[in-house]
């Protein structure tokens, strides 16, 4: 009969925290999709500038990805390298 | 036996109630959650309304035709709002969970899960309303192309409905064919 | 020492459910405001069509109101004609 | 030693329900602000139609206010005329 | 050893309800900012109509403020004139 | 008064997790609706390109559906093939 | 062995209420950013009207800030001048 | 009478965390739908550039999918390869 | 055997309150990104006005940052200068 | 039989607070994606101004990143330099 320990509580909260952190991914999804749409529009209008357009789109999308990555990193830390249970 | 563990204390407190009370309390919250889907049709149909007013100002002659398309498109955009209302009313007036056997906490959580699921309806509501607005705009501009514009609009709206349907299926499964209580 | 009854639990949850249902009101507020803006713009463009423009705006806004009303109705049912406590 | 009663639980939930109901106010705020922007734009373009534009903007904004008012009414009912505690 | 009373529970819920009510402020912030942008655009295009544009912008923004004020009032009622604890 | 088992707690959380996962469906609904609108607009402007427009719209909408399907799959796993209760 | 008092519960809820109230800040952030974008666009198009454009942008942004300030004030009241604990 | 174990608590929280992580899917759904709409618009306007437009749209949509995939991966880890229960 | 104290409850709520307060950061992120896009567009169209455009963009973005800073300050107060535990 | 300690409660809340703080990342993701789209559009239209466009886009995106970074910093403080457990 193993009761709920403090360790279990911290790990349970970590699972929820990891899920919450992933919600940040809404942002890059919307933003990069906007860039994709504008890129497709631009390529249709100026096919000769396709290289420049796609390169700018991808550069901007890379910048827009960062906060999604931050969320992923915090989630992976909570799941795989949980620093909180060491503080118990 | 005094339990010093607050999670166990809370769960024991919850289970000190009549099982029906816990399920009905969860149903009240689930019904409230389901209604949040109403954000979608509100935004979408409002967009269509704005596009309708705009279409009338650009081409007063085709205004009546554009307004008809606005109403057609907006009717489709209402779907998720109606589905959510139905789920909420079932939870309130014909609650199938209250007489379900099995752990009260699972049945209660199913009511909340059903409500949460319906929130997906925000998406189809906004999206279909946008399509309604664009259909209205174009019919105002090119009334002779009404049938192909409306057909494209409806096709796109049908595609945009799917995630709302998925959500309703999950809600109905949780309410009427709950697979979780079989696992107890 | 009167313990908390099941009736109280249901009524407490009904208060929260009523509050949640009102959140639906975000939608009509945004949508009708958009219609108001487009209506004002249109009236400036063709003042002679003002009647038709405003009528279309109001008709569309009436359609956009419904889900806000649904939310209100569910909230009022929970507050004033609570069907759940009758099931207790 | 006064324990938590069912009455207290319902009133506590009412405070939270009232707060939730106010969130509806997001909608009219966004929508009416859009109308304000379109009104200002229209007045700048057709100053001679200012009266019609502003009147249409205000009419549309009044329609957009309703769900915010519904939220306020539900909150005030929960706070000042709580019908739930009478059902206890 | 003072246990948690019903009064404390209601006051705690009031703190959370007050915080929730403030979330309504998202709406006016977005809407009025949109109006500000449209006003700035309009003034740049028709400087001669600056007075009319700004006046319409401010009138529309005042209308858009209301639901934010409602949220503030409900929060202040919960904090400073709490009607719920009188019902205990 | 039936006590809560660990199995029941996991299944209860699975019901809520399934509901939360479905919220992802907001995205495809909005995005595909935007595509529908742009498709209808395009068909009105270039009726001769209707086939290409509708095909591109549907291709893009299929891509936009995926994350809604992911949410559905996770919900179905939680409901019908719950891997968590096997870990108890 | 100091148990959780009603005072502690109210203060804990105040911390969460303060955090919730800050969420209002989403609105002014979006709105004022929109105004900034429109201002930059306008200044590029009509450099000669820069003064008027920027002044209108800042005036509108000041109006859009208010609900963010309301949220901050409610949070600071909860943290530094908590009126609820006096009601215990 | 089998009591709730820490293991059950962590698994329950994992179910909720998995559901929360899927909410990220809102973003790609909206963004890719925007790209679909812009793609359909572009194909209607420049049918001769259809290949380039669709390719750019799909490339951009692939980039926009990533944060939705991150959310799915975190959910699948929580469901099928839960690293937290090993830390108990 | 150290039980949960009121102090621990307030500090736990402060951690959640700090996290909630950061959500305000969504606003400036969206708004300033809009300004960045409009600035980039403007600089492409009127390279000769680059100085004015960028300066207006940054001025507007600074204004749009404030509510994000408010959220950060409230979070830092909760974490590093918690005034609530002094009230216990 | 080790009960849940106050320390465990604070650490569990810190995991959830860290997850909540990451949600701020939605904002920069959307905003920077908008800037990316506008940058790609601009580069297609004025290839000769590519340098200026991309530089302005990146400058604006850097400004839009800040609140995402604030959220990350608060999350990392909660996870790795938790100041709250020192207050226990
Ligand atoms: Na970024
Ligand atoms: Na769909
Ligand atoms: Na409706
Ligand atoms: Na209304
Ligand atoms: Na208002
Ligand atoms: Na997708
Ligand atoms: Na304001
Ligand atoms: Na991505
Ligand atoms: Na600001
Ligand atoms: Na920033």
TrEMBL record, chains A, C, D, E, F, G, H, I, J:
Tell me what topology the record assigns in the membrane. Answer: Multi-pass membrane protein
Q: Which UniProt keywords apply?
A: ATP synthesis, Cell membrane, CF(0), Hydrogen ion transport, Ion transport, Lipid-binding, Membrane, Transmembrane, Transmembrane helix, Transport
Where is the major localization of this protein? membrane
- What GO terms fall under cellular component here? plasma membrane; proton-transporting ATP synthase complex; proton-transporting two-sector ATPase complex, proton-transporting domain
Q: Which PROSITE patterns does the record cross-reference, listed alphabetically?
A: ATPASE_C (PS00605)
Which residue ranges does UniProt annotate as crossing the membrane? 57-81
| GO MF | lipid binding; proton-transporting ATP synthase activity, rotational mechanism
Q: Where in the cell is it found?
A: Cell membrane
Give one Pfam family, short name only.
ATP-synt_C
Q: Which residues form the V-ATPase proteolipid subunit C-like domain?
A: 16-78
Q: Which SUPFAM superfamilies is this protein grouped with?
A: F1F0 ATP synthase subunit C
Q: Which positions does the site annotation Reversibly protonated during proton transport cover?
A: 65
Per the UniProt entry, the signal peptide is none
Q: Which CDD domains match?
A: ATP-synt_Fo_c_NaATPase
Q: What PANTHER family does the database record attribute to this sequence?
A: ATP SYNTHASE LIPID-BINDING PROTEIN, MITOCHONDRIAL (PTHR10031), ATPASE PROTEIN 9 (PTHR10031:SF0)
Instruction: Name the job this protein performs.
Output: Key component of the F(0) channel; it plays a direct role in translocation across the membrane. A homomeric c-ring of between 10-14 subunits forms the central stalk rotor element with the F(1) delta and epsilon subunits. F(1)F(0) ATP synthase produces ATP from ADP in the presence of a proton or sodium gradient. F-type ATPases consist of two structural domains, F(1) containing the extramembraneous catalytic core and F(0) containing the membrane proton channel, linked together by a central stalk and a peripheral stalk. During catalysis, ATP synthesis in the catalytic domain of F(1) is coupled via a rotary mechanism of the central stalk subunits to proton translocation.
**Family from the record:** Belongs to the ATPase C chain family.
Q: What is this protein called?
A: ATP synthase subunit c
Species of origin: Alkaliphilus peptidifermentans DSM 18978
State the encoding gene.
atpE
UniProtKB/TrEMBL annotation, chain B:
Per the record, the major location class is: membrane
Which positions, given as ranges, span the membrane? Answer: 21-48, 69-94, 100-133, 154-177
Q: Which GO terms describe its molecular function?
A: lipid binding; proton-transporting ATP synthase activity, rotational mechanism
Subcellular location as annotated: Cell membrane; Membrane
| Superkingdom of this protein's organism | Bacteria
The reply to whether Cell division figures as a keyword in the UniProt entry is no
Q: Name one GO cellular component term.
A: proton-transporting two-sector ATPase complex, proton-transporting domain
| Its membrane topology | Multi-pass membrane protein
**Sites annotated Reversibly protonated during proton transport:** 78
Domain (V-ATPase proteolipid subunit C-like) spans 29-91, 112-174
The UniProt keyword set, sorted, is: ATP synthesis, Cell membrane, CF(0), Hydrogen ion transport, Ion transport, Lipid-binding, Membrane, Transmembrane, Transmembrane helix, Transport
SUPFAM superfamilies per the UniProt record, alphabetical: F1F0 ATP synthase subunit C
Q: State the family it belongs to.
A: Belongs to the ATPase C chain family.
Q: What does this protein do?
A: Key component of the F(0) channel; it plays a direct role in translocation across the membrane. A homomeric c-ring of between 10-14 subunits forms the central stalk rotor element with the F(1) delta and epsilon subunits. F(1)F(0) ATP synthase produces ATP from ADP in the presence of a proton or sodium gradient. F-type ATPases consist of two structural domains, F(1) containing the extramembraneous catalytic core and F(0) containing the membrane proton channel, linked together by a central stalk and a peripheral stalk. During catalysis, ATP synthesis in the catalytic domain of F(1) is coupled via a rotary mechanism of the central stalk subunits to proton translocation.
PANTHER family the UniProt entry points to: ATP SYNTHASE LIPID-BINDING PROTEIN, MITOCHONDRIAL, ATPASE PROTEIN 9
The identity of this protein, by name, is: ATP synthase subunit c
Provide the species name.
Alkaliphilus peptidifermentans DSM 18978
Gene name of the record? atpE
């Amino acid at each position: 009969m193993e009761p709920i320990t403090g360790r279990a509580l911290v790990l349970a909260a970590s699972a929820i925290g990891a899920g919450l952190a992933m919600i940040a991914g809404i942002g890059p999804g919307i933003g990069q999709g906007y860039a994709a749409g504008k890129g497709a529009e631009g390529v249709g209008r100026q096919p000769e500038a396709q290289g420049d357009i796609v390169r700018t789109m991808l550069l901007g999308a890379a910048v827009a990805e960062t906060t999604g990555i931050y969320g992923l990193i915090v989630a992976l830390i909570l799941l795989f390298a949980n620093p909180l249970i060491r503080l118990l | 036996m005094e339990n010093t563990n607050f999670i166990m204390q809370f769960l024991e407190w919850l289970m000190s109630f009549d099982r029906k009370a816990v399920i009905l309390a969860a149903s009240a919250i689930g019904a409230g959650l389901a209604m949040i889907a109403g954000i979608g049709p509100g935004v979408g149909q409002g967009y269509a309304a704005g596009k309708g007013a705009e279409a009338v100002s650009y081409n007063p002659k085709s205004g009546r035709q554009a307004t008809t398309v606005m109403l057609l498109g907006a009717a489709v955009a209402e779907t998720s709002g109606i589905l959510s209302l139905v789920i909420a009313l079932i939870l309130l007036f014909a609650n199938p969970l209250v007489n379900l056997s099995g752990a009260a906490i699972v049945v209660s959580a199913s009511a909340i899960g059903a409500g949460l699921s319906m929130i997906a309806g925000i998406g189809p509501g906004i999206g279909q309303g946008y399509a309604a607005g664009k259909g209205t705009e174009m019919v105002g501009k090119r009334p002779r192309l009404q049938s192909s514009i409306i057909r494209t609009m409806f096709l796109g709206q049908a595609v945009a409905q799917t995630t709302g349907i998925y959500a309703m299926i999950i809600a109905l499964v949780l309410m009427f064919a709950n697979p979780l209580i079989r696992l107890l």
